[in-house]
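Protein modeling request. Please complete all fields; requests missing the sequence field cannot be processed.
Requester role: graduate student
Desired output: 3D structure, token encoding
Chains: 1
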Amino acid sequence: MRQLVFIFLVLIGFSGWSQNEITQEMLNNFHKDFIASPKSVALQNAISSNSLNDLTVSRNSLADVDVYFKYRVKTSGITDQKSSGRCWMFTGFNVLRPIAAAKMNTREVKFSHSYLFFYDQLEKANLFLEGIINTIDKPLDDKRVEWLLKNPIGDGGQWTGVVDLVAKYGVVPEDVMPESYHSENTSAMSRILTTNLRANATKLRQMHADGQSMKVIKEHKISMINEVYRILALSLGEPPTSFQWRFEDKDGNLTPIESYTPKSFYEKWININLTEYVMFMNDPSRPYFKLYEIDYDRHTVDGNNWKYINLPTDEIKKFALESIKSNEAMYFSCDVGKQLDMSRGYLDTSNYAYQQLFDVNLTMSKAQRIQTFASGSSHGMALVAADVDENGIPVKWLLENSWGMKGHKGHLIMTDEWFDEYMFRLVIHKKYVSQKVLDILKSEAVMLPPWDPMFSPEL
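Delivered output (459 residues):
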């Protein structure tokens, strides 16, 4: 019997035995295979000395991009998040700014990102320390404790952060609290905050180990939040609690000076219920027409987790098209780095032929890319236009970006095929959504852990 097993293993090449390691024989065979192709030397010379995008750009995609759209939202000027991960906030404001500009009868209005960013960071610090306290009796290698310590704070986020922060703190005009160096260049301040929070998390856990009461631990947490406030105030400036402001309308008329609080300013010039917007996701790795919620994916302790309805892209597009036709922009997030031709501001699945250049397998479905962390939402922008064919079917879309005038005059144009492959989240007012889909919000959400592949704050 043993002899038969040995013969069988020989016949199948000792699968699982002899192929575990990279051997010299394998290397020799790889080398022979490489030099056997007469194109290898030429490809090596070209690839090793040039940009992959330059070598793989499709000739067919180099033709001029059609920059016209049948339906387009009236927007309020291009913004620039600079070297920060605040695209989610810029995108949220880019949805709101046209509403305020119309009410003010101005061509453009800008809100202070620095103001809301101050409270975003303060709230996230409190959320983190509360998470540490809630898991204080768990070991360091507990999955949730480990996730918390890996993600104490960041400048990324998503739509629910805009909703909860604006509801709690309101908004102010940009010139009331202008950008600072550290709001536009967040990395250094983020490192200080991250280290401070991890050090204080260690202190809180040690206090618990030493037998300190929860009352004492909570009191110490407040002093730790005070430290975060100090870092933020020194780096960004203190946010105003009241201010006086006036503006010039598009006819050149100067309005009277008025006194505001951040919340009264929002109520006067925007005054829309942000909870009436619905978040949609296209995640083909999970069942469609279901409600999902990601645990701990929020910006404030008293805020809301990110909750979304998972739908096929064709369903999402129908609602999006109605919103654009009604002159309402939407919060949109995607995997922006995939197949992006930044020189033209063009997103198309066939922009670059990487697979053909290297003659290797790079093919995965959208579901497989999600499951293997090969693709996820990386950036938020405002969806502001759509172009359709003679049958009313979308062929391309327009995104208002927050990278200054880069791309197509501050915008990115995406094909409908790219939308299918790399769109992840879209937030649409409920009045453009069918009742059948809205009824899904009444169902119990499937709770997902914060380390789920879908947890990916926009930057």
